[in-house]
Amino acid sequence: MDSVRNISSRKNIALVAHDHKKRDLIDWAEYNKAALAQHDLLATGTTGTLVEDALGQPVRKFLSGPLGGDQQIGALIAEGKIDVLIFFWDPMEAQPHDPDVKALLRLAVTWNIPFACDRATADFLLTSPLMYHEYACAIPDYSNYIKRTI
Hints:
The protein is α/β, with parallel strands linked by helices. The chain is built from seven helices and seven strands; from the N terminus they run ββααβαβαβαβαβα.
């Protein structure tokens, strides 16, 4: 049986962007400034500084992605401390930390948090009525998996 994690109406939104997608994320954030002001923002390195400067809203910043920022955000997802992930990744550019990127996306799916990897999906996600109300998020039961690995 799945358990439930109650997500408040004020979400913890993690923002991540590859170098060639940072401008796209900043443009999206500026366009959605009023909506984002209703939530708490977290971000990897440079992305966090750029978002904070663009919005004039505090952003909890972590290390740069290649230096472990992706993993720091992934750990918070596993701890139930991130409610939404917005990750503008660059599908045309090889990333030296690609395994970390895949691990971050895997964690978002594992812990059933909504995430967007492009502007259109981020727009749909941010404009959902569920973003502004409490939400009972089903957390999958991994007890059988854990028993298999012991």
